Amino acid sequence: MNPIEDKDVLLQNISSSEYFPITYKELEQEAKQTMSVGGFGYVRSGAGNEETLRKNEESFSKLSFLPRFLRDVSELDTSVQLFGRTYPYPIFLAPVGMQKLAHKEGEIASAKAAATHRVPFVLSTVSSYSIEDVANATGDSPKWFQLYWSNNEEISFNMVKRAEEAGFEAIVLTIDTPMLGWRVEDIRNRFSPLKLGLGKANYEADPVFLRSLENQDAESIIHGILNNINHPTLNWKHVAALKERTSLPILLKGILHPEDARLAVENGIDGIIVSNHGGRQLDGVISAIDALPLIVEEVKGAVPVLFDSGIRRGTDVVKALALGADAVFIGRPFIYGLAVDGQNGVEKVLANFIEETKISISLAGISSVKDLPALKIVTS
Ligand SMILES: Cc1cc2nc3c(=O)[nH]c(=O)nc-3n(C[C@H](O)[C@H](O)[C@H](O)COP(=O)(O)O)c2cc1C
Ligand SMILES: O=C(O)C(=O)c1ccccc1
């Protein structure tokens, strides 16, 4: 094989005889061809009139780099340190539930793809494959567990215990979903993946959940999940209770207000994820990237600040890091890769993300991800 093709991801793509979608738009179009109307609509859409979904992307386009030159960018260090671990890139796969929606191998395929790049995988509570199945399929590759608090908190504690025992290294408590957002596209398509049983794996495998049911037939399990997933009473006391039950680092996902960031730090939380859930919860909220600097300013380095919502390509990763994020989660782009070509599709999406990120950091005149906060960004 030509040695140039071997090393250079740009040239590899250019010389490839196989078509693989390269931009987010193309990925979305290709994924649409492989998914059901309801499944695709579920992944693509935002809540309400999709104002926030649109804003997430528009806000990124309004940010412009002020690059520096003549600084020798021949070496680049993309590694990041979080909670005592070193990761090769500041990129994670976001917790996305019910990945069988995109591909029959679901989370097994995407977690394996993440493992090939040593990219951490965040498993959702409502995954299509269980904590144990994903752990067994991916060995010692880095994994975190995302928790949706259950109405019966013993179920939450047991899921966290299972995640700990299976080698997951942090708990991501999602706080922006005390109930599901107003999902207009799903009403249009009459579509509920939870009702179809696509998110039941962790519940089905949980003895505490199963014991809480009167019957354990398929219908009762779905009913039990629907009863547990909405938790409108969720408050800081639950956060304190979770802290009592696990020695793993706890991150809160969905913070948008600086006051909540301050409370998180005061309550001993280990990390914050600035996110608006990809525009899927409260429509009309601030774009996540516009909220990021406010949170970074409030937190002042007390705990790591991670980011998601609206990242579509490598330059978006660089923008989020330049504005003070320590790492980012990618959501829909990898799900579309999964839909297009399973594990291989996610591997390609990640390879392209990583490469565009690296090229962009270097072209901006920076040699280490740690120096990205020094990269100037203006709004135009
Ligand atoms: C289909 C789908 C399912 C999701 N499921 C979850 C979930 O189970 N738990 C969670 O915390 N976030 C969930 N999210 C939100 C993602 O973790 C992430 O915040 C969002 O996708 C980031 O935005 P992006 O898609 O623009 O990258 C989901 C997002 C999508 C698109
Ligand atoms: O669809 C989502 O965004 C999501 O996070 C979710 C929440 C509850 C059940 C299933 C998915």
From TrEMBL:
Cofactor: FMN
Domain of life, per lineage: Bacteria
Catalytic activity: (S)-lactate + O2 = pyruvate + H2O2
Start and end residues of each FMN hydroxy acid dehydrogenase domain: 16-380
InterPro entries xref list: Aldolase_TIM, Alpha-hydoxy_acid_DH_FMN, FMN-dep_DH, FMN_HAD, FMN_hydac_DH_AS
Keyword field: Oxidoreductase
Family: Belongs to the FMN-dependent alpha-hydroxy acid dehydrogenase family.
Protein known as: L-lactate oxidase
